[in-house]
């Protein structure tokens, strides 16, 4: 049974956590291209994959439950990985996703506004551009930290330091 959970754990990590780490980078490209609807889809996908990544943890607990190696939740590398995962999940759900949603709203709303004067319209467009740039910077920062944490987790899972 341990082998089954280990297989499910690795498969879920590859097919859920892998795309979770890559989607924000794709979204930054869409933000630079001004594709608000694409950014919105990527925000929803990032949110969904963030929640689905909990399956990796569930399968990991399954491995621990059937472990014959004496590994428990209090084992250093397991506990460290869990703490880092909670931080990465929080950054994704409360940093990356809101920034993507903000960028999508700014991009889709920037072209829809109609100002009463050309000056007001130009000012609104400049404000929207500033908001989009700030959102892109937040996506880059939070997703970069999240990806780094995920790499550290993979190192801990493969190295299993004493």
TrEMBL record:
Q: Does the entry feature the keyword Transmembrane helix, yes or no?
A: yes
Coiled-coil regions, chain positions: none
Superkingdom of origin organism? Bacteria
Q: Does the keyword Cell membrane apply?
A: no
What keywords were assigned to this record?
A: Membrane, Transmembrane, Transmembrane helix
Stretches that traverse the bilayer: 6-26, 47-66, 78-100, 139-159
Task: Specify the protein name.
Answer: Conjugal transfer protein TrbL
Which source organism?
Nakamurella multipartita (strain ATCC 700099 / DSM 44233 / CIP 104796 / JCM 9543 / NBRC 105858 / Y-104)
* Taxonomy of the source species: Bacteria, Bacillati, Actinomycetota, Actinomycetes, Nakamurellales
């Amino acid at each position: 049974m341990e082998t089954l959970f280990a297989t499910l754990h690795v498969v879920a990590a590859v097919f859920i956590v892998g795309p979770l780490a890559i989607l924000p980078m794709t979204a930054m490209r869409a933000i630079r291209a001004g594709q608000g609807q694409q950014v919105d889809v990527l925000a929803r996908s990032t949110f969904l994959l963030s929640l689905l990544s909990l399956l990796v943890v569930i399968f990991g607990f399954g491995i621990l439950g059937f472990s014959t190696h004496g590994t428990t939740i209090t084992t250093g590398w397991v506990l460290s990985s869990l703490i880092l995962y909670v931080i990465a999940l929080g950054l994704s759900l409360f940093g990356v996703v809101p920034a993507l949603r903000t960028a999508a709203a700014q991009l889709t709303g920037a072209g829809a506004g109609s100002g009463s004067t050309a000056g007001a319209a130009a000012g609104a467009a400049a404000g929207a551009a500033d908001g989009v740039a700030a959102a892109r910077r937040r996506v880059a920062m939070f997703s970069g930290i999240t990806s780094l944490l995920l790499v550290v987790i993979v190192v801990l899972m493969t190295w299993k330091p004493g």
